[in-house]
Amino acid sequence: MAGRKRPPPGLDRDLADLPPDLRWREWMRRIEAVLFATATPVARDDLARVVGQGASVDLLIEDLAIDLEGRPYEVAQVGTGWMLRTRAAYAPAIRVAADVGGQLLDLNEFDLAVLAAIAYYQPISRDGLKDVFGKEISRDLIGRLAERKLIGTGPREPRRGAPYTFVTTDTFLAAFGLESLRDLPDPEQMADAGLAAR
Questions:
Q1: Which residues of the chain have pLDDT under 70?
Q2: How high is the pLDDT of residue 198?
Q3: By the 8 A CB rule, do 7 and 45 touch?
Q4: What's the pLDDT score for residue 177?
């Protein structure tokens, strides 16, 4: 969807023949359909391509979120886009009845620690990670995190050899139910709770 510059022929964006309340509801349904059909967050500009000129995507999203209250899924903002996400209360039912094995992160405790370090210190190089952990972080581990699209490359460090740095992605935010990196737990609070080293 991100690559489209304009709506496909035949898509009546403005729906001028509908009364305002039905037009608004149809725009909400279009946004819901787009979010339902995609596995990644959809940007505001992409959603704006299926609604009328001047329609507020933000207000349509707000109304859609209200409309979905009480349903097993919700609209979630992830980074600069939105997606539909199953509510956490339904995770056990999904694990029992659905084949979601391919969607599991399958990360061990150290993998998660490295991922957390990247999230908190980004952009960070492998040397920076070595400073955090006191040991070399393998290219295989970085590769596994990148393969799952949890991290990507950031700017190169401005020093000899210009090593790559790593940053988290929107997939990381979606996987951990975060809207932005500001939603990460405070490191001091985690340390006080015994969940992280100081």
A1: 1-9, 99-104, 190-198
A2: 47
A3: no
A4: 80
Residue carrying structure tokens 């399958």: 106
The whole-angstrom separation of Cα 34 and Cα 46 is: 9
The first and second tokens of residue 71, run together, are 């349903």
Helix axes 20-37, 57-67, angle to 10 degrees: 80
Alpha carbon separation from 148 to 19, 41, 43, 102, 113 (Å, rounded)? 45, 16, 21, 11, 16
Q: 42-55: b or e for each residue (b if 16 or more CB lie within 10 Å)? A: bbeebbbbbbeeeb
Nearest alpha carbon to residue 82 among 91, 73, 94, 69: 73
Please report, as a single letter, which amino acid is at residue 52: G
- Cβ burial of 101 (10 Å; 0-12, 13-18, 19+) is exposed
Could you tell me the CA-to-CA distances from 92 to 40, 57, 116 in Å, in that order? 22, 32, 25
Query: Tell me: the pLDDT tens digits for 141-195?
Result: 999 999 989 999 999 988 888 899 999 998 898 888 888 888 888 877 766 665 5
Tell me the C-alpha to C-alpha distance, in Å, between residue 29 and each of 14, 47, 50, 51, 61.
Answer: 14, 11, 10, 10, 10
Task: Let me know: does 40 contact 1? Beta carbons within 8 Å.
Answer: no
Q: Tell me which residue has tokens 């886009």.
A: 81
